[in-house]
Amino acid sequence: MSIEQFCRLIKEKIPESCPYEWEIFIAQRTHAAVVWANGSVEEKKHAQSRGIGIRLVSNGRQGFASSSGFDINRFDEVWQAAATAIRFMPADPLRMVPEVSRIAAQDVMIFDPDIDRMDLRGREEMLNELEKKLLAFDTRIRKAYRLEWSQSTGISVLMTSKGMEISKRGTGCAAGIECIAEDRGDTQVGGFGLSSRFISDLKTDDLPARSGQLALDQLNGKPINSGHLPVIFEPWVMVEFLGLIASSVCADSVQKGKSMFAGRLGQPVASSQVSITDNGILPRGLGSANVDGEGMPRQRTVIIEHGVLKAFLYDTYTARKDKTHSTGNATRASFRGVPEPGYSNFILEPGLLKRNSMIQNITKGVRIINIMGMHTADPISGDFSLGAVGTMIENGRFTRPVKGITIAGNLHQMLHDIVGICDDAMMLGDISSPTVMVNKLMIGGS
Q: Are residues 160 and 242 in the same domain?
């Protein structure tokens, strides 16, 4: 049964005299992947998930239930489960199904028909060529440990008792390489991956050199003496810090006191060089859509402007609590859950600095190419202590690999200590960052 047929049957099932406000979310996602190693296909994957989620609200009480598959015979059961759940939920006068927005949603480019109809056999050939390029990149690259291509297509429909009926359809693809490098008895693993809405945007030719160089850059690394040093964060490393910042500017975290930015709206929270936006209407962005998970139009929101905290990310419920408007940031992990605030495309805006010029002006510092343990960072205090791997910078040059170190500090202070933002922004998934320089961080070494 198609999602369109399922929606038509659902409309016939909804009770005519309904005592609830209701919201029905139907979603379907198809996923395919091929894993390549040692010159041949190691694994192929094909999967489809589909299902329905029903949210009912009565007098501020909310009930939710879901079911996988498109089985119309289970609709009454799921509806009743949501109705039963209402009885056990506390009343909250701010809890309601959103009205239809008066703001027109923008049409954004998120669907690639080439992905929707693509056969994996063509991707096998691509992975084979990437493996050959990787092994030819440097004699120290001993093995292509894993190469993977994946692609997906998703479609969803949102219907509500307030008269909303909105559908959206999107695609995604990703490619990644993991490899092993060896030199003088030392073995290191390097890897890099890219993802996009459109296959034409995925620059797979760059992957062998990027993943291979990351493995080579770690060979025969040694700790350095402990101390405070300038630090260069590669874009893919800075993205991990931005992920922590993104969760901290979601309104539910702020309202629960679980955010490092609680109570700081309108205040300087970073260097004046730092501007961060959340752009849900970025053309071809992985986090883009015409509407969010509640049917509110996506938008571009300035979070931090020249170091000053300007806004948080809201769904309709958290917006009511703060007497403001939704920023179009309700997200759904799947049909199995209710919407909650989340980022779309989270972007640290690029600066004007050239990467080489910035590095050439460093007398002594460290370039960080990998960090471990970001999940241990405290989202409230901002404190972090992370394992790290990188490269020593001396007199403006990369000189030797560094490993067995920790970087420790406080994210509040680190944001204020940013002294350089380059013009080399890299979109990695739904977070974008350029190369960033921090004036000093505590390096724990030997």
A: no
pLDDT band at 28 (very low <50, low <70, confident <90, very high): very high
| Residue 150 and residue 264 share a domain | no
Question: Does the structure show a pLDDT above 90 at 324?
Answer: yes
Number of structural domains (the chain) is 2
Residue 364 C-beta-side C-alpha neighbours within 13 Å: 7
Same domain, 147 and 166: yes
Alpha carbons 11 and 374: distance in angstroms, whole number: 45
Domain boundary among 182, 212, 242: 212
- pLDDT tens-digit map of 390-403: 999 999 999 999 99
Cα dihedral angle (193, 197, 199, 200), rounded to 10 degrees? -110
Give the sign of the dihedral formed by CA 223, CA 228, CA 229, CA 230.
positive
User: Which one is predicted more confidently, 105 or 409?
Assistant: 409
Can you tell me the distance from the alpha carbon of 164 to that of 170, in angstroms, rounded to the nearest whole number?
20
Is 105 a residue whose pLDDT tops 90?
no
pLDDT in tens, 293-323: 999 999 999 999 999 999 999 999 999 999 9
**What H or E segment, with its residue span, contains residue 114?**
helix 113-116
Q: How far is CA 66 from CA 22, 57, 81, 269, 431, in A?
A: 13, 15, 9, 41, 30
Q: Model-level pTM?
A: 0.95
| Whether residue 139 is found in the same domain as residue 19 | yes
Stated length of the chain: 446
